[in-house]
Specification:
Layout: H1 19-29, H2 40-45, H3 55-63, H4 65-68, H5 75-81, H6 89-92, H7 97-107, H8 124-127, E1 130-138, E2 145-159, E3 163-172, E4 181-188, H9 192-202, E5 213-220, E6 227-233, E7 238-239, H10 240-250, H11 256-275, E8 278-279, E9 288-291, E10 296-299, E11 306-307, H12 326-329, H13 338-353, H14 363-374, H15 379-385, H16 405-412, H17 418-427, H18 438-442, H19 469-477
Helix pairs in contact: 11-13, 13-17
Organism: Bursaphelenchus okinawaensis
InterPro entries: GSK-3, Kinase-like_dom_sf, Prot_kinase_dom, Protein_kinase_ATP_BS, Ser/Thr_kinase_AS
Region (Disordered): 1-72
Length: 478
């Protein structure tokens, strides 16, 4: 089998329709790192032999959630925040049926109990609009401001591995003249170690290519006392995953202009994160939110984000498998922000071909798929990948030469040129610090058409704001 035959078409792209991706992320994120030197056997069994957190651990996490809370609210106000919940615990299951059913499924480790995207409501109450008056914190550059917020939850949009997302509107109650704003409401399943970090990181981020966190609040279940964290976010109409899915159904590719626009803005967002010393650790098509009418892209879902510190150990089981950098597949724990650049390169290749480039069935198979296209790495390449790690030589026993990126991409997209192949190959490298990213990526000739004064969206509208565009124009001209 040739290297190009390794590139497979995913069965379903959209996050709302993909059980496999949800299960994979849940599997990967419940695992723990035991040592630096993985064997080939460990890599083979990693995805099957994971240890799941016990129900008791989850219960303790929920009970202690308030101690980890980034906001401090008296009991009386927390009770007011739960206004709108039915007081009977069983009836309260129907207050937010999708959320609580998903919560039960998570605790029992049974994905089959999760509602599907198109599931029918079980009662008339589920069809109605949910209205809550909550005490929230409004995110600001200085200190977050406590406020009263009217929240209307209108429609279930979908679920991630650790949260549910709804469409809704919010309106501050303590400010006259404010209009309702349409938003996304993300409800995080109770896990204080995650929600505290997600909010504390997300509230600090301010960039046009990152989803903005507007408010956050917590409701308490009247009987079980489970905390239900909610994040009020900018609403975007679609994702790269959904737009690819639409075109796959029609047998077409994402227009070249959008592939360039979306990848340019992805690199802008990642550059901001890297300068701010954060890595996202879950860059994938589902987390790239887009507006096709305006051409805008924003990176979302900061549940796996973390502050980057030199030489600090981190969990290797991050990033959805298909977009996982080779150092993560080899369980290296001292990785850096370049894992996000690798994921972006995988997505770019996917946008150009409508194919998941490295379609591994488990962690070991993922590494093999990378070897078959990028070639089996040399010891010197691995030393430049993440210094200070050792590796079982058996992992490198199968030798593959590097494939030709131009031939791989051209097989699925006749309009591909050597420029396309060059940017993909420059990003998807074993040597972390040599991966194309940041300003160097934005200067690449792949994006030259965006720098032309005549560049417009298909309907004739101007391109969205593109950070560093003038800077890269001068650099390219020079």
């Amino acid at each position: 089998m040739s290297a190009t035959e390794e590139v497979k078409k995913p069965s379903v792209v959209s996050a709302n329709k993909t059980e496999e991706k949800q299960v994979t992320k849940t599997e990967d994120k419940t695992q723990t790192q035991s040592k630096d030197v993985p064997s080939a056997t460990e890599l083979d069994t990693e995805d099957e032999n994971h240890s799941s957190p016990s129900r008791k651990q989850n219960s303790n996490a929920s009970a202690s959630a308030k101690n980890f809370s980034p906001i401090s609210i008296p009991k009386q106000e927390l009770k007011a925040a739960a206004k709108g919940c039915k007081k009977d615990a069983e009836e309260n299951e129907h207050f937010d049926p999708v959320f609580y059913k998903n919560l039960v499924a998570m605790r029992q480790h049974d994905q089959t109990k999760r509602p599907t995207f198109n599931s029918q409501p079980e009662s008339a109450y589920e069809e109605g609009e949910i209205v809550l008056d909550v005490i929230a914190k409004k995110v600001s550059k200085a200190k977050d401001i406590r406020c009263h917020l009217k929240v209307k939850q209108q429609a279930y949009l979908g679920s991630g591995a650790f949260s549910d997302v709804y469409k809704g509107v919010v309106k501050p109650k303590d400010k006259k003249g404010c209009e309702e704003v349409t938003v996304a409401i993300k409800k995080i399943w109770p896990d204080p170690s995650r929600e505290d970090r997600q909010i504390s990181i997300h509230r600090k981020l301010d960039h046009p290519n990152l989803i903005k966190l507007m408010y956050y609040y917590v409701c308490i279940h009247p009987k079980t006392k489970d905390t239900m964290w909610s994040l009020v976010l900018e609403l975007m109409p679609s994702t790269v995953s959904q737009e690819q899915g639409k075109r796959m159904d029609r047998g077409t590719l994402l227009p070249a202009l959008y592939a360039k626009l979306f990848m340019y803005q992805t690199f802008c967002g990642l550059l901001y994160l890297e300068k701010s010393r954060y890595f996202h650790r879950d860059v994938k098509p589902d987390n790239l939110l887009v507006n096709m009418a305006t051409g805008v892209l924003k990176i979302g879902d900061f549940g796996s984000a973390r502050k980057y510190r030199n030489y600090e150990r981190n969990n290797a089981y991050q990033v959805t498998r298909y977009y996982r950098a080779p150092e993560l597949c080899m369980k290296f724990t001292r990785y850096d922000t370049t894992v996000d650049a690798w994921a972006a390169g995988c997505i770019l290749a996917e946008m150009l071909t409508n194919r998941v480039i490295f379609y591994g069935e488990n962690n070991a198979d993922q590494l093999k798929k990378i070897f078959r296209i990028c070639g089996t790495p040399s010891i010197d390449q691995l030393k430049e990948c993440v210094p200070g790690h050792e590796l079982d030589p058996d992992i490198l026993k199968d030798k593959y030469p590097p494939a030709n990126w131009f031939k791989i991409l051209k097989r699925y997209n006749r309009s591909v040129t050597e420029v396309h192949a060059d940017i993909v190959g420059s990003i998807l490298r074993y040597e972390c610090n040599k991966r194309l990213r940041g300003l160097d990526a934005l200067k690449h000739p792949f994006f030259d058409s965006l720098r032309k004064p005549t560049a417009k969206l298909p309907d004739g509208s101007p391109l969205p704001f593109l950070e560093h565009l003038n800077e890269t124009k001068k650099s390219v001209a020079a």
